[in-house]
Amino acid sequence: MRAAIGGIVKADGGPVEAEELSLLVSRARVPGAGKPRIFQGAGFGLIWVPAIPDAAAPDSGGRCVVVLDGTLDNRTLLARELGLSPEAAVPGAQPLLIAAAYERWGLEATARLNGEFAFLLWDRIERRLVAARDDFGARELFFTEAQGAFRIASQLQMLGRPNLSDLDDEYVADFLTGQVSIGPATPFRSIRRLLAGHRLTVTAEGRPETRRSWDLHDLPPLHYKTDAEYLDHFLAVFREAVERSLETGGRAWAELSGGLDSSSIVCVAHEVLQEHPGRAGDFATVTFVWDETPQSDEREWSQTVVRKYDLVNHQIRSDDLFFDDVTEAALHRSEPHFGIFAHPMYRAEVDLLRRSGVEVLLCGSRAESVVLADQTPPVHLVDLFRRLRLFDFSRELLRWQRGTHRPLANLFFSFVLEPLLRPHSYRRSSEDERRLDPWVSQDFARRLGLRDRLRRRWTKRTFPTLAQEVQYERLRRSEQMVHRGYHEWTSEARHPFLYRPLVELAFSIPWEKKVDPELGKLLLRRSLTGRLPDEVRTRRNTRGPGPSAYKAYAKRWAAIEPIVRKSVMASMGFLDAAELSRAAELVRFGSSSKFGAFTSCLAFEFWLRAVTGVEA
User: Fold this and answer.
1) Smallest Cα–Cα separation from 523: which of 301, 237, 216?
2) pTM higher than 0.85
């Protein structure tokens, strides 16, 4: 269940005042929130603000108090291992299940939890707070220490209204050089982020300590004799991932863009629900369509899936649904993100889901980091060469030469020789190697060494093979692609591709079984042969909302221009005001080469104004 959660622990072990907890509650951004619950005891206080008005409150008796945002996918297995009744595995009993797991296994219980969640647990006996996030960052937790108290919350702004003087230059530098924020830093120095897949503990008398609770480092490689075995195994676990997502709540729908990822989820969900006739009739799909911008529209593919499975498809006309209500969108996000400009689209979807009583929305985002998208490089070549699998190496080298039309010497140098010369590091993806944007202040660039950051192509390796390292980095970076903001509060947005057993399986399968010189997502494409319409299963080109957003930008220029002209980030020395205005004008009159980078920077400006209360 979606909920805003938070907690306070006093450093001196003293009581937490009710007013302090009420302040946490008042800062939570939960549209249509249910009744908040406050739990207090010696040295601690926890709050829970559900997104559902009639939600049942967590049990506050016993050794532990648990407040949860999200859901567990392995509830039935946990209940069985703990010797509990089947009733302990229902969604509403998840806090009790977490408490029981903690009482049985202690801090190691966090590694046994599988799902999309963040939770806070107070142990009355040990006088200890335990906080944890899911493995792939679908839910968030932020914390700060101030005035003799430790505070933690699922939304950054619950910890207090940030101010411009607290803005973290290092975070801004990383943002402006295109690096996705996956570390502990947040936009503000006084607030830190609990990393995905980590747990945090803090006693009433101590400082917080964080530790990784789960990762992929110890997974052995998987080897089957035939390709069919890989595909059968993948399809079985993918089906399980969709099934667990459907079990999150009641009526379930799925987003259907017409792309391979969302279409695959719809296909498998339809198959699963045919075994449950009572629920199959409730299943439907949602598609964003564009009548005025054919370059964005994908309904020809989505309708192919709809016709094959005879599905109900709700279409949301999305022309011109950009750049409105940006402040409201920004206040529902804990970090700047260009997604705030698509808020009208999400609001239209939210209204539809709310009217239809939908509790679960299946989403295909973040699949690229699990099943590996098109144009994934052959980083496995050096692994084959290093292990002296020379026959396999020669075969793969020739396959990629024919598929990419690159000279053999070029492939050998880039993907074998270079990595061999740097055995303890790896080359980061090309997305980190672009040139500095012209609107970045030259003084700020020199002071923070932004050009050196862009040129820093190599970073430390931690996995035995380069292929594993590259996929792990993609998994970590994909955290920012998950559904966030106002949109997520109407229904439980689930991401089947983030199902832990599926990620573990995909990570263990050899690289050459997952990627191809011409096609990505081989596991997904091949395992759904005969299930998914071939024109969708084999398609390579995709469309997106970019062209429509581009047109909307020009229409909203009257509202955007004052923000650009009086840029807060320029006044603070991060951006060059003249270059920023020039870039904004170019975008307005048709230059799209920097549209993505510029709108990301503009999103930071809008977000910063919203969360700090700076007037336009």
Assistant:
1) 237
2) yes
pLDDT for 432 equals 44
Average pLDDT (4-26) is 91
Q: Is pLDDT larger for residue 373 or for residue 235? A: 235
Percent of the chain with pLDDT over 70: 98
Q: Can you tell me the distance from the alpha carbon of 377 to that of 414, in angstroms, rounded to the nearest whole number?
A: 10
Place of tokens 């989505």: 302
**Closest among 514, 422, 499 to 468, alpha carbons compared:** 514
Buried b (16+ CB within 10 A) or exposed e, 103-115: eeeeeebbbbbbb
Furthest CA-CA distance within the chain: 70
Q: Assess contact for 24 and 49: CB atoms under 8 A.
A: no
The two three-digit tokens of residue 565, written as one number: 């002209």
What CA–CA distance (Å, rounded) separates 68 from 123?
Answer: 15
Interior/surface letters 368-385, b for 16+ CB within 10 angstroms, e for the rest: bbbbbbbebbbbbbbbbb
Residue 403 backbone phi and psi in degrees, to 5:
-75, -30
User: 9 - beta bridge partners?
Assistant: 44, 150
- Region at 22 (left for phi over 0; alpha for psi -120 to 50; beta for the rest): alpha
What's the pLDDT score for residue 153? 97
